Amino acid sequence: MNTLENLISLLSRLPGVGKKSASRMAYSFLKGDEEYNLKLGQSIMELKQRIHKCHICGNFTENDICDICAATDRDITFLCVVEESQDVQMIESTGDFKGFYHVLHGVLSPLDGVGPTELGFDKLVDRIDHSSVKELILATNPTLEGDSTALYIRHILKDHDLVITRIASGLPVGGDMEYADKMSISRALKGRMKFSSDDE
Amino acid sequence: MGFSSVTLCSFRNLKEQTLDLSRKNIYLVGNNGQGKTNFLEMIYYLCYAASFRTKNEKILIKNDAEYLNISAKFHHSNDKISSSIKLYQDKHQKKIKLNGKLVRDRKDIISNFPCVVFCHNDLYFVNGSPEKKRIYLDQCISLNDSIFITYLRNYKKILKERNMLLKNKKIELLDVYTHQLIETGYPIQEKRRELIQFLNEKFDTIYSEISGISENLKIVYNSSWKKSGKSKILEDIWQKKIKEIQYGITLTGPHRDSFSIMMGSNDYLNFASTGQLRIISLILRILQSEYYQISTGRLPVLLVDDVLLELDSEKRERMMKFFPRYEQIFYTFLPDDMITSSENSITYRVNNGLLEKIE
Q1: Of chain B residues 96-155, which have a CB less than 8 A from chain A?
Q2: What are phi and psi of B264, to 5 degrees?
Q3: Residues near B43 by Cβ (< 8 Å), separated by ≥ 6?
Q4: Under an 8 A CB cutoff, do A108 and B173 touch?
Q5: Per-residue model confidence as pLDDT tens digits over B74-84
Q6: B165/A182 Cβ within 8 A
Q7: Which architecture does CATH list for A74-173+182-187?
Q8: Would the CB atoms of B176 and A186 count as touching at under 8 Å?
Q9: What pLDDT was estimated at residue A199?
Q10: B176 interfacial to chain A (CB closer than 8 Å)
């Protein structure tokens, strides 16, 4: 295998990248600016050296403790559990949540060998024991695995003095019922809420 | 209308050919082993991208061929335009194209051209293993309710994970997966019970009219969860925990359920003759077609494979009175059978995989 073929095969392992896209990328590197290639290579190399998991929440950061955990103006009574670091970014981009996070880096999947030990739930329990969290928001995805993970967390924390909530699931806002899948509509119906004004 | 034409290549023993199917009644006449059932299987395969005879779809490909290829045009009388479906299968993969677009999930074509097959093996729905009986129930519901397929898939996945936990004695996660087992299994049971309620509305009346005897039969769902209500079921499973860990397997749930045909408090299986069992299996198929028709407002395509031959002529005639309405019917006959052809029918002679129109 020559250098070009090797690069194509490596690129095509990336998520969402097929053989064709990988080959287009490789040729673009070959024809493109050398400085750009160098910067890109360097960034990839530095990624693992510089970025690691936050000691407190598990989110990716360049420091010992991530910016969110280090912030002093956030509400310590709320803790939100998510599957991946990307989920933190997504929730942060809404600007609606001012509490703290806990990133699991996965979900329960016994068949794939992912159990409670792999996801480090003891760390989560320990964190709750040593903080003033009053509400724990379980924001794992509304999939079978995400639901199982949320159920397990509820189970291990059942004796704690804590409100445990689950993020709502159902229809996407601005979405069209026509294009929603039946399972989402069914879940949206089951999870319907009383429609009243705030001052009632 | 139904299927108007089909072009097939390398499906079982059938010869490469394009066939006109543009009539409501399609009759296939031929001796045994000529390809009549293979043809019905091919139509079934077009409807569901699966076979009613085998789970190993590779054997559908003709012996010396690398792949099979079928395409067909279908026009449902409720729809304004016709649809086209193409199926390709080789030793590694299957591709389905509906109106030129690739279909990723088989579930997405099931409701487009639904068919109900009447075949010899239907007898297993009556006297076969619980698994066969569950297949009947689940098939009836899946035809018009694609959420049910998701329920089944989710349940299967949770069951597999729960069994793995039990086998490897990973008890700490058992609570969660028991909860999920009930959450995913409960709607399956609810749907099956609804179906059985529907079946019971007509089952006994049709049976007494066809068989000529009144037995007061009732279909009863046998749930392996003996309690009703999620919390009671949870308690019940909890009590079996030690046994489950010992066996390393999930002992109760929709995957262990079944149904029985009851005469009073006795299982009718212990009293019925082979002919009577055959009548019951036919009624189950008739009611499956009606259930589909009532819940979707559409008529199914029927595939009838030799099953009426086992009945005497009087019962056969009575059976025909209850035959469900259909979009199109495919019927197999032996060469000696009397066929009344009409302008509404096309008759094909099936000989060594080749179909020839008989004018």
Answers
A1: 146-147, 150, 154
A2: 60, -125
A3: B3, B6, B115, B301, B303, B330
A4: yes
A5: 988 878 888 99
A6: no
A7: 3-Layer(aba) Sandwich (3.40)
A8: no
A9: 55
A10: yes
